[in-house]
């Protein structure tokens, strides 16, 4: 038994090289897969990533796309600066007249004025001359019965008189509160008609009186008036005091 086993082993060792040579002559294995007809090797590991390639050249612009939809309106911006005025436009046609407005107040709220004339030929001396011919006395601040003007609105007034002189000399004075302010004298020339006049600005307080009066004794009351000759006296408020309301 032991001799048979040894004989068998020797036979196999002699036959094996022969079989290997015959197989080598019949099939040539792939050099990339050694022992491909016997046993494949284990798969290898993936290699490392290579370096990035260089940037390519810029491409050409493409065709213009279609117009997009209109977007939502944005918020209102800040007001811009005022621009340069434009050219004047053509003149339009006149409009229709408007309705008549209500009557307004005058520019002068405070009024006081009078203008009077003489009717008597020879006024008495040393008393106020009564000018009874009324030209204007709308506010009734002049009293024809006394010949005196009574101040109702404190302020600055203008007074003036223009007298016809006939038959005798004239001496007159303008009075304020029983005190003579200005004097006028005219010496009459026979066979003639003379004129005497005077004017003054006075500040009056409420209640003050102003009038004309022949002064002196003797023939000094030649103030005259008829249907063609007048002797006049006038006055008016120039401007009221600032504290008058």
TrEMBL record:
A cellular-component GO term for this protein: collagen trimer
Pfam families: C1q, Collagen
Biased composition (Basic and acidic residues): 54-70
Region Disordered: start-end pairs: 43-102
Subcellular localization, as worded in the UniProt entry: Secreted
Key words of the record: Collagen, Hydroxylation, Secreted, Signal
Domain spans labelled C1q: 107-244
Signal peptide span: 1-24
Protein's name according to its UniProt entry: ADIPO protein
Lineage: Eukaryota, Metazoa, Chordata, Craniata, Vertebrata
Gene: Adipoq
């Amino acid at each position: 038994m032991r001799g048979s086993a040894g004989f068998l082993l020797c036979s196999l060792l002699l036959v094996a090289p022969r079989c290997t040579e015959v197989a080598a002559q019949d099939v040539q294995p792939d050099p990339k897969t050694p022992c491909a007809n016997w046993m494949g090797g284990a798969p290898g590991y993936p290699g490392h990533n290579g370096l990035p390639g260089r940037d390519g050249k810029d491409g050409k612009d493409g065709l213009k796309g279609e117009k997009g939809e209109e977007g939502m309106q944005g918020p209102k911006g800040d007001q811009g600066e005022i621009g340069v005025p434009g050219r004047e436009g053509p003149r339009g046609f006149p409009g229709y007249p408007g309705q008549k407005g209500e009557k307004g107040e005058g520019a002068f709220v405070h009024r006081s004025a009078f203008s009077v004339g003489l009717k008597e030929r020879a006024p008495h001396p040393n008393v106020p001359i009564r000018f009874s011919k009324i030209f204007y006395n709308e506010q009734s601040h002049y009293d024809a019965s006394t010949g005196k003007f009574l101040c109702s609105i404190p302020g600055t007034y203008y007074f003036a008189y223009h007298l016809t002189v006939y038959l005798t000399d004239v001496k007159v004075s303008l009075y304020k509160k029983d005190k003579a302010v200005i004097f006028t004298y005219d010496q009459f020339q026979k066979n003639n008609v003379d004129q005497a006049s005077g004017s003054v600005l006075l500040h009056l307080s409420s209640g003050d009186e102003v009038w004309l009066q022949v002064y002196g004794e003797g023939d000094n009351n030649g103030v005259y008036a008829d249907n063609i000759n007048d002797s006049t006296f006038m006055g008016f408020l120039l401007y009221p005091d600032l504290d008058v309301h």
